[in-house]
Amino acid sequence: MKKFIISIASLMSVLLMSSCEDFLDQPIRGQENLDTYFQNETEASKFLSSCYAAICYNDWWQIGKFWNMLDMCTDDAWMGNTTQDQSDYYSIVHYQGVGQSNEAVANFWQNRYKGILRCNIAIERMPQASIFNENIKNRFIGEAKFLRAYMYFDLVKNFGGVPLVKGFIMPSELQGITRSSMEEVYQFIENDLLDAIESLPNVNEYSATDTGRATRGAAQGLLGKVYLYQEKWAESRDVLSTIINDNNYDLLPDFGQVWSIDYNNSKESLFEVQYMFDETYSLGGFLSILAGSRDDDGWAWGLPSSNLEKAFLDAGDSERLRWTIIKHDATEIAGETAADFDALYGKSYVISPEKHKSARINRKFFIPKSKRPARYVMNKLPLNHRVMRYADVLLMYAEAKNMLGEDAGDKSAQWALNKVKSRVGLPETTKTGDELKYEIRNERRLELALEQNRLFDIRRWNDENGKKAVCNIMGPNGSFVKYNEAGTDSYERSNQGEPSTKGVSFREDRDLLFPIPLYEITMSNGSITQNQGWN
Fold first, then answer.
1. Number of folded domains in the chain?
2. Which of 30-39, 72-81, 431-440 has the weakest average pLDDT?
3. Which end of the chain is less enclosed by CB atoms within 10 A, N or C?
4. What is the full DSSP assignment across 430-471?
5. Residue 311: inside a domain, yes or no?
6. Is residue 297 part of a domain?
7. What SS3 class is residue 282?
């Protein structure tokens, strides 16, 4: 197990003493001095690539492990693997209140700040770079601001107010740093994204060689979500409507194409992490193996729950169900022909119930054997990770319109919702008000299942009893806890290698945020404080 514990202040020291290789994630030899770097467009572009690399780095444990954990904290997924040590996840996923030293959380925190540091350097140093094309220089800075905003958004929605490190400053200047308020962090994110929108091209203005870079649409989509999470409904509506009216994006005709390896960077994608297969370097993804069946070279972390399957069945949504969940003993897999299935898997696909809590895996991250690279190994998988897509934009727009009480007029909220529903053959809705609100919420669960949205949605949604939705799902009387007490699913009931009591220890006064890593508090001599309930 890799461990890399380092405080915010220590990150600055590490970079000052490091070679260029440390921050470029490239096999480059020799030392570089930041004072003499950024002398031309090539150097600036190379450093910017290191900012993109910081989205997930080149291994599973820095960011991907935490990503995968997010859905485990909801009613959509279990930890899943019941044959190996679960301590990396258990304290957080099962709401034990002892996750201050959780390794997944600690690695995520420090690697997000490492990425922010790279972006800060780019934003500060690129204006002085000898790039003759000012448009390219401004675009590079806009890309770095988009990435910095994305990383701070990742922090604030998980931890609340966090320390704002706005530039490349010396370690001594960080002594005594404190947490900024959530409002201050969100304002900083908004400012970065507004700047990025001004300088970034539309997706159709990039050349093919620039595929995967941040676009104006990506910045607008992220800003729309940032507004939505703060309940700035009008601001969210306005920026999301701009994306819709610009017609640069659209839904793919078939839901099965959304997470297909054949449809990386599709017309539905606003932003995704770029992966590729390379025989020598670790340039590929990892989630397909991290979340895959242990009977098929996977690690089985983050397995869909029967509760999620029931949500699809209750909605009559067989199309998205088959593209979201693969179940033990399946005799077909969406995306594989019958001939391929028989040749590659035999009579049925195995997800051994004694090894897998729910005997189910995530179809979205699954790469069919007929499409796997020659070497199916961690960090070499060419399935891009979808960070934001057009269906999310449509559902956020519908939610903003509904929350503004604008769903009884021009019906654009219903139009946006129905556009997503129609793709999978579900009947259109004419609902308004609270009925529409809960239909939008359910549609977000089904459409975006296992894409790291559910936890943040149920943490921010207010229910009729005045509590956040997660408080009515988890806790001793939560709907998910009660569902599992009834134990209707034979796989989940019989495999108690992961207890079915997940969520019973949830506390409203603690578990709306993750804990600040304990080492960060200790190394700051207490100037960085812990979240409520985690002391």
1. 1
2. 30-39
3. N
4. ---HHHHHHHHHHHHHHHTTTSS-HHHHHHHPBPTTSSBHHH
5. yes
6. yes
7. coil
